[in-house]
Amino acid sequence: MTHRQPRPLLAALLGLCALAPLSAAALEAVLTDDVHLSSASPASNYGALPTLNVSPSAQALLQFDLGALPAGTLPEQIAKATLHVWVNKVGAAGEIEVAQITSDWGEKTVTQNSAPGIHIPAASVLVAQAGQWASMDLTGTVKQWVEYPASNFGLALAPALSSPATTVFLDSKENTATSHPARLEIVLAGPRGEIGPMGLQGPKGDMGPQGANGAPGATGATGLQGAIGPEGATGPQGATGAQGPSGVVAIAAWNGQATAVTLSNTSYTFVGPTATLTATSSAQRITTAGSLTFVPSATTSLRVDICYRSSTGTTLQTPGVGYKVIPSVVNVRLPVNVANSFKPGAGTWLVGPCVRQNAAAMSLSVSSDDWSTGWAMLTNE
């Protein structure tokens, strides 16, 4: 019997079958540490809280272990790496950015006073609504970690420079109520085989008789599992659970013109608008920060702080720690930043910047350009 040589089209198809398919697999890095730092309480550690706060005075830190990657993974095999964070609450919509951390830290010990170094931002995302994932492309960052494993000190999240008032609260891995810790999803691409040379076409032979039908061939081996598909739609919201022992209770802010006042050397006075918060127990804490400007009438020094008073009272109280002694020059506008954290007890409280005379008698004057802005947050402990 004379064997028939493949036709040109069939030969080309057989050559293409020699190509190895481009395989892909998705996996997740393990989140080992997450915490936020607060400039309002620079000596405090917040590694056990259910939320990661990102605000003008707070940044969040994340650490991922890439041990789930197959041994010998190369940077060029990282097809895609995406960071997903769950937005639990939005205090002020805006934009957050992510940057590499450049030195070591620990979830249970790090504070603002011992904060690690932070590199320039690698990606950012707009955040305007709670109850959904916010995602950022970190393919370049993960490729660098794969090539230089010692450079993986984690990631830092903070308000973007173009949106400094952004205030959001993200789920931490300690949040058992919603269970949406940060995720780092990595998609791997397998190598593609090379195309072999195509053989020459032989002479056309005579067509032989048709053979009998052969037995069915064996079932082929199961192919590689495909990449993980996109997350499904969010299911219906369950019933509200009981209030846990910690978390954010309320957020308030002030924004308005500073106030002209005559200062006393024995008591503080508010120097602009205030925020109002209601605490239901003595265990709740108020954390606050703000800024303002005014023009002193004397060259001396004065004390500035965050004060509070009952909504039905007239006497201002101070936390007793954290006030600043600020030098002033007569008739020269003075910019001031203030922050503090305290437990005022149960009640409705007015909170805002306050000033008192530290030495010589003086007063503060303001113009339409002198403004006071800030925020206050009530949390359980």
Descriptive notes:
This protein folds into two domains: 24-189, Jelly Rolls, CATH 2.60.120; 247-380, Jelly Rolls (Sandwich), CATH 2.60.120. It has 381 residues and is mainly β. It is built from two helices and 21 strands. Residues 1-23 and 192-201 have low confidence and may be disordered. The strands form three sheets. Strands 1, 2, 3, 4, 5, 6, 7, 8, 9 and 10 form a ten-stranded antiparallel β-sheet that branches. Strands 11, 12, 15, 18, 20 and 21 form a six-stranded antiparallel β-sheet that branches. Strands 13, 14, 16, 17 and 19 form a five-stranded antiparallel β-sheet that branches. The N and C termini lie far apart (90 Å). Helix content is 5%, strand content 43%.
Secondary structure elements and pairings:
Blueprint: H1 8-16, E1 24-38, E2 51-54, E3 58-65, E4 78-92, E5 94-101, E6 118-127, E7 132-137, H2 139-147, E8 155-159, E9 167-171, E10 183-189, E11 247-257, E12 261-262, E13 269-270, E14 275-279, E15 285-296, E16 301-310, E17 324-327, E18 334-342, E19 347-357, E20 363-365, E21 371-380
